[in-house]
Amino acid sequence: GPCTECSCSSGKETDKNASNTKKKENSDQSFIPKIFFGTRTHKQISQITRELKRTAYSSVHMTILSSRDYTCIHPVVSSCVSNRNEMCVELLEGKHGKSCLYYHGVHKLSEHHALQSAHRMYHAWDIEDLVSLGKKLHACAYFAARELMVGADIVFCPYNYLLDPQIRESMDINLKGQVVILDEAHNIEDCARESVSYGVTESQLRAAREELDFMVNNNIRQKDHEPLRAVCCSL
Q1: Residue 187 half-sphere exposure, CB side, CA atoms within 13 Å?
Q2: What letter does residue 83 receive in the DSSP assignment?
Q3: Residue 12 pLDDT level (bands cut at 50, 70, 90)
Q4: HSE-up of residue 37 (Cα within 13 Å, Cβ side)
Q5: Nearest CA among 199, 217, 210 for reference residue 232
Q6: Which of 32, 116, 150, 171 is geometrically suited to a Cys-Cys bond with 122, CB 3.0 to 4.6 A?
Q7: Is the pLDDT of residue 63 over 50?
Q8: Strands (E), the chain
């Protein structure tokens, strides 16, 4: 401790040290890591959240990240099989003079969960629960789930949301300093391979080759396009 005959024994110095210690403790405690729980399929997320409801941690703030295939409630977009993502983006950008009514109601879902938490009625939920509530409130479940991630203690999602860097970036997922749990992790190898793989049809290759032929024949960045054309031809 401080000696009794020099300035370090003064009350001000002691208070200053105590204040610095307190600030350090507060800064250390300010960051609370999230738990990212990755599963192979969306069905497994349903099973896990069902089990979570049965535990003492049922009231923990959570969210489930999933694709528009499971969460979009827009009657036109959700009925489309092939290009839901593109149609959603067009509505968000206001193309063709139309916008998404459900996207503008996202705050209704967030406020609903905040109200439940304030009244200590918050409990674990599943994708179907969120979609059902979204339809009732005319609010987008897809973007509401992403918004709920900010205050969530645990985030459920498929493997590729954690493994694929492009998906992580688009979903604003930052895993630095967080806790990551992978269910049935022996499937990770296949999922990682799929994340960096892409499938093309023969007709797509032919179309690409024709476009590259046009580029090369018209002296448009030949050095870049000739190797690409060679790849298409070899495939």
Answers
A1: 11
A2: -
A3: very low
A4: 17
A5: 210
A6: 116
A7: yes
A8: 35-39, 62-64, 154-158, 179-182
**Nearest by Cα to 149 from 63, 213, 76, 36:** 63
Query: What pLDDT is attached to residue 97?
Result: 77
- What per-residue confidence (pLDDT) applies to 80? 83
Strand partners, 35: 154, 179
Tokens representing 139 are 């609010």
Cα separation, 173 vs 163, in Å, equals: 11
Phi and psi at 104, nearest 5°, equal: -70, -10
Structure tokens at 161: 């949301």
pLDDT over 60 (residue 27): no
Q: Look up the CATH architecture of domain 35-196.
A: 3-Layer(aba) Sandwich (3.40)
Where do the CATH 3.40.50.300 domains begin and end in the chain? 35-196
Query: What letter represents residue 13's amino acid?
Result: E
Q: 3-state SS of the chain: helix, strand, coil percent to 5?
A: 60, 5, 30
Tokens of 97: 């003079």
Strand (E) or helix (H) holding 194: helix 188-195
